[in-house]
Amino acid sequence: MNDAPALLVVCDAGPPIHLDQLDCLDLLADFSRVVVPDVVWREVEHHRPTALDQKTIRLERLKPSEEPSAELNSLHRLLALHAGEVQALQLAQELNAGLLLTDDTAARLAAKTLQVAAHGTLGVLLRAIRRRQRTPEEILDVLRALPVRSTLHVKRDLLDEIIRQVEVLK
Questions:
Q1: CATH class held by domain 8-121
Q2: Are 28 and 124 in contact (CB under 8 A)?
Q3: CA 158, CA 95: separation in Å to the nearest integer?
Q4: N or C: which end of the chain has fewer CB within 10 A?
Q5: How far is CA 170 from CA 43, 121, 128, 165, in A?
Q6: DSSP secondary-structure letter at 145?
Q7: How many CB atoms are located within 10 Å of the residue 139 CB?
Q8: What would the pLDDT profile of 143-152 be if each residue is shown by its tens digit?
Q9: Residues contacting residue 26 through CB under 8 Å, at least 6 positions apart
Q10: CA 167, CA 50: separation in Å to the nearest integer?
């Protein structure tokens, strides 16, 4: 993940929800802009309203100003993307965002097709070590607690592998 602090990011619903559940939403504070599409905002508001009124981070609610591209419309149908994922991808394209934050596999595949960099909650947590926002020990605590503190679905094998990689950094 690019570590440039001036990066504009667009969020799908998963990362703000999961990061808030893990008390790690502040890890988005060093991005220059954190844009949340209108449809995604309503989804987060429904599932995790506390994520939207954090004092440490300003989330910017925004609607796309253009229609989705033909390519995005095709991907929407092909990958059965939800409205929030489509708006997030649309704004990422429209704003030339440096990064799309999504935990959805189909949205990440669409982002790759559209040449939009995409990472999820786990990427944000690992980035926090590189950016010295958290120590490896702090991130290990978060990763170990993730299955009980967050609704993020991660295969146990993948989570165990990430934990092993972070343990090497201690």
A1: alpha beta
A2: yes
A3: 32
A4: C
A5: 37, 21, 14, 10
A6: H
A7: 23
A8: 999 999 999 9
A9: 54, 56, 57, 133
A10: 31
